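note to self: dont lose this again. the chain is below, predicted strucutre after it. 560 aa total, dont forget to put it in the shared folder this time
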Amino acid sequence: MRLLNNLNFKTKLLVSYSLTILFIIAAIMIMLNFILRSGYHEQEHEALRAYARQIGINIDNRVNYFISFLSLVSTDRMLISYMENEDYQQVVARLNTTTAEFMNLHTGRVRDIRLYLNRITDDIDTLENTEVIFDAFRPGNVAYRDNFVITGTYLNNRNEKVFSIFQKVYQTNPDREYHLEMRVYETELFGFFNEDTSGSRFYLQNDRYIMSMNNRTEFGSMLFRSRDDISHYPIASDSEMQAETIVVAAGNSGFDVIIEPTPEHLDRGYRMMLVQLVPVIVILLFFSFLFATLISRSFSNRHKILQGKIADLSNWKLDEVLKVEGKDEFGILADELDNTRERILDLITQNYDINELKRVAEMSALRAQINSHFLFNSLSSIKWLSKQGDPEVLSDAVDKLVIFLRYSLALDENQVPLNKELSQLEAYLYLQKLRYGDEININVDVDHELLELKTVKLILQPLVENSISHGRHENGNNLIIKIYSFFDDSTYELIVEDDGIGMSESTIQTIYSGDEIISKSGCGLRNVIERVKMCSNGMGYVIIESQEGAGTKITIKQQK
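---
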């Protein structure tokens, strides 16, 4: 067992499963010697072709019988005499007398026989598009030679499926053109294959149009619901038919029998052979997998141990040492995973230290950006207030300066409630107003629903400072700064917008890229961008929109 453990995993795996594959291949070869699937398919095809030929013969005989009867009627001397000399109603009466015995014998098979004089009948159930049918009897057409036309299946006024056989009556009076129509129930066709239990799809078509089929639901949906329409639904072309489709022509009546056998029907002989081979296959597979199992059992326990160690690693149980005995791939992989575990622990420690140092450095950099002129001007304003003798205003100014300095210089947190950030901004704006007075107008309109949300610390004051220091017009026009917010279900935005001198697109791209900082304004903006990204784990971002001479708009988007 110890020697087996020292073999590499790949060798053991190849040996075990190669033997299994060899057994499976041998079993397949044995089955191929007994099974010729194509032969079984051909046998089933031949049986279905014979069945289709028989259906075609039966249908051809039945339709030819109806055609023969129409031919006899169309040559009846008494009827022809009536057609040449009497009015239409008398001819119809004579036709009914001539066909009465036939109709009595074929009740439930033939719907009726009707007569058309000059292509017109007084029957309310006549078809509107018989013109196409009558034109088929012109000299040169097939119907002129055979003297019959079979139409597609349609629904009559009694909601019955019928098809029609038309025949022209030739007589000496050319001013009286008579056509006979026999309407036959479609079940005369359906009856030849309705008891089939093979599951195959049966179609009957005439002139490429479906006349009947064994799927009655589908066939019913294909018919027009108006008695005045012939249902012409072309079936698939020869190139579109399935390879297993069987087509048998049915003589001079024009019917084709189409069978689309199901794979289950074609494979029934094949399945019977498989059933006979199942015991052999089962035995072969049993011994194959038994042999493979015996070989793989030597390292299955080692695999379970390694799997458990990997699960511990994936669950961040990094204190557990990953060791597996042996010198094969399991042992080597366990050593590599243990080394990876140790490196992860080192990286976690290093990443924490780096992030902490980066945070301190960022905050230190921000603190270093506090404008010394701002402090000097603020202290000068406080000194001036002290000479004015207004101790209340002087006290407020000192309080605001203390708030600003305490908040700006504190390094103990990266994110603060938004109301705290706005309090610091309010102190900063109070001191700026002492210096600039009405030269700057600042409007803060932040939704109260956002005041308790966390925001990255010290992001509004640097933006306002940039607007005051770098956005004011040279002509001395007052600067208007707006601070407002938007929010939705998951995010909120803080916007600082001014109507100052703006900046160029190249300057904006330089600030975004951080390749080159060309001004303190750019440095402050870049600082805000980096801190928003760092403190929000990449979920927050800053958008700079500006146009030279028209002002600047900076949007800070953060998660709620």
